[in-house]
Amino acid sequence: SAAEAGLYTATDQIVLLTPENVDSVLVNSSAAVFVEFYASWCGHCIAFSPIFKSLARDIKEWKPAVDLAAMDCAAEENRKVCISYGIRGYPSIKVKSHVRGVCAGPCFPRDVQGLRRSIIDKLETHKEPWAPACPPLEPTSQAEIDSFFDTNNVQHLALIFEEAKSYIGREVTLDLLQFENIAVRRVLNTEEGLVARLGVTEFPSCYLYYPGGNFTRLSVKIEARSFYSYALQRLPGVVRSGKPPPVSTPVLTGNSEEPWRPFNRSRVYMADLESALHYSLRVEVAAHTVVKGEALISLKKYVAVLAKYFPGRPVVRNLLKSVDSWLQNQTRDEISYEAFKDILDNSAQSPDAALPEGVRWVGCQGSQPHLRRYPCGVWTLFHVLTVQAKNTRGTDPKEVLMAMRNYVHSFFGCRSCAEHFENMAMESLMEVDTFSSAVLWLWSRHNLVNNRLAGALSEDPNFPKIQWPSPEMCPACHAVKANGDHSWIQKEVLPFVLSYFSSSSILTGAHR
Ligand code: FAD
C-alpha cells in the first residue's frame, strides 16, 4: 500500500493519513493533530523523517492532547487531499485546528526540542478550545493552589518552579496527561508568595504539595524533564488511566496455577531462561510438524547459538550440544518435529543431558496469566546470549542477533511482534559490527519496543514499560544534553547491561 511505501510505518506512532481516514483523523479527533505533508522522494523529507519519528516517541504520552500524522503527497491517491490543504512544498507541517493550517514550508524547527516547544506554543496561543483534551498549561497562582484540593480529587499535586522561558513545567504536565491521581502545575519564580512559602531557591525544581499545606521536594538526579516525569509517573497511587491499579497480591486464576514466587526485580533468573528454552523448543517449534526450508535454517542457527552461549547448568548445556550436533548432521531439507523431539527429550541417550519439562517463571511472572512470561523470557534469553557471546569472544558479532531475528521470524507466535522486530532488524542490524554494539543494539531496540508498548494492553500494571535501566537502577547511565533533553551515557549503559545479564549474576535458586 501507499502507506507502506512512504517514510513511516504503523509502528512509528504516527497516524498514516489516507484519503479514507483523513477526515475522521483531522476533523473528529479531540487532539491537536500536527500533520507532516511530505513527498517520499524528497531528500529533505527523508532527512527529516527520523526527527519526526523521535518526536513521536518523545511526546508519546501527550497523545490525548497532541497527535502526529503524516501524509505522503507523492502517492497518486493522496494528491487531491494534499492540494486541498494547499501543500506546495515538502515537508510541510500543518496543525489541524478545526480551522486551517497555521504553518507551511520551512518555518518549523528541525530538531525534536524545537518542534516540541513549537507544539506547546501552538497549544497555548490558540484562543478557541480546539484541543479539548489539553490540560491547563498556564502558570498557577497562590490563590489556585490554596483552593486546589477543594476542586480537584487527586492524591498528588506536583509544582514545578521555573522561569518564564522554561518549558519543563508544561512538558511534564503533558507527560503526566495519561496518569491519574496526579496534577502538575508550573509556578513561575515571580510567584513570590508560593516561592517564599516553600522556600524555593532553585529553578527549576519540583515539589509535591499536599492538602493542608504540607510539601516535600521531589528528589531527582538532575533537575530536568525526563527525571521529573519518570519520578512522578511512579509515585504511589499514580496509575495510568484506564489501567487497573497495581495489585500487591497478584491475581492468579485457575487452580492449576502455581503460587506467586517473590523475586528480586533487578535480577535475572535461570528458571526464566530454562522456561523460555522449554517453551520455544517444545511449544513454538512443535507448531511445525515438519520443519523445513527457512524454518529449518532458523532452528539450526538458534540451537547452534544456544549450544555455544547458553550459560546454563551442565545438564542443560550437554543437552543443547547434543541437539545441536544432531541438527548439524541433518543433511535433508526437512526434519519432522517428532524426530527433533526425540533428541530433545534425550530418550535416555545420556543421563547427564536434559532440558527440564514445563515452565516455571520467576522474574518473568505476570500479575495475570496472560501477561509477561514467555515474551519476557525471550528478551531475557537473547540479552543473556548477546552478553555471553561478547564475554566468550565469538567470531561473528551479528551471530546471536541474526539467530534471534531468524527465530522470531520463523517461530515466534506473536506475528505482529515478529513483523515489528523484522522491520527494526532491516533498518539497523547491519550497523552492528562489534560484540559491544550487538549488546547495545538489542538494548536500544528493546527500549524502542518498550516506548511503543507503554500503556498498551499487554503492559502488566505491576511492571510498567520503562526506558531501561531506570535512574534508580543505573544513575550513571542517565544524563541530560546541553539543551536539557535526556541522554543515555552509553559507556555506562554497556557495563551495566554486561553485568546485569552476565552468567555470574544469574540467580539459579532451587530447580524444579
Ligand atoms: P519485557 O519487555 O519482556 O522485558 C523483560 C525484562 O527485560 C524486563 O523485565 C527488564 O528486566 C528487562 N528489560 C527491559 N527493557 C530492557 C532493555 N531495553 N534492555 C535490556 N533489558 C531490558 N508485544 C506487543 O504487544 N507488540 C509488539 O510488537 C511486541 N514485539 C515484541 C518483539 C519481540 C522480539 C519480543 C521478544 C517481544 C515482543 N513483544 C511485543 C512483547 C513485549 O515486548 C514484552 O515482552 C511483553 O509485553 C512482556 O513485557 P515485560 O513487562 O515482561 O518486559
Characterization of this structure:
The protein has 3 domains: 2-125, Glutaredoxin; 142-240, 3-Layer(aba) Sandwich (Glutaredoxin); 270-505, Four Helix Bundle (Hemerythrin (Met), subunit A) (Up-down Bundle). It contains 19 helices and 14 strands. Helix content is 41%, strand content 12%. It is α/β, with parallel strands linked by helices and 512 residues long. It starts with a helix and ends in a 12-residue tail after the last helix. A 4-stranded mixed beta sheet has the order 1-3-2-4. It has a 4-stranded mixed beta sheet with strand order 7-5-8-9, with helices on both faces. It binds flavin-adenine dinucleotide. Flavin-adenine dinucleotide binds next to helix 15, helix 17 and helix 18. Residues 364, 372, 375-376, 378-380, 383, 408, 414, 416-417, 420-421, 443, 446-447, 449-450, 453, 456, 458, 460, 463, 468 line the site of flavin-adenine dinucleotide.
Summarize the structure.
The protein is α/β, with parallel strands linked by helices and 512 residues long. Helices cover 41% and strands 12% of the residues.
Low-confidence stretches: 98-105
Q: Level of helix content?
A: 40-55%
The strand line-up of the biggest sheet is 1-3-2-4
Question: Which percent band covers the strand fraction?
Answer: 5-15%
Distance between the termini: 50 Å
The CATH class of the largest domain is Mainly Alpha
Q: For this structure, what is the CATH homologous superfamily of the largest domain?
A: ERV/ALR sulfhydryl oxidase domain
Topology-level CATH name of the largest domain? Four Helix Bundle (Hemerythrin (Met), subunit A)
Give the total of domains.
3
How many H/I helices? 19
CATH-derived architecture of the largest domain: Up-down Bundle
**Which outline best applies?**
globular
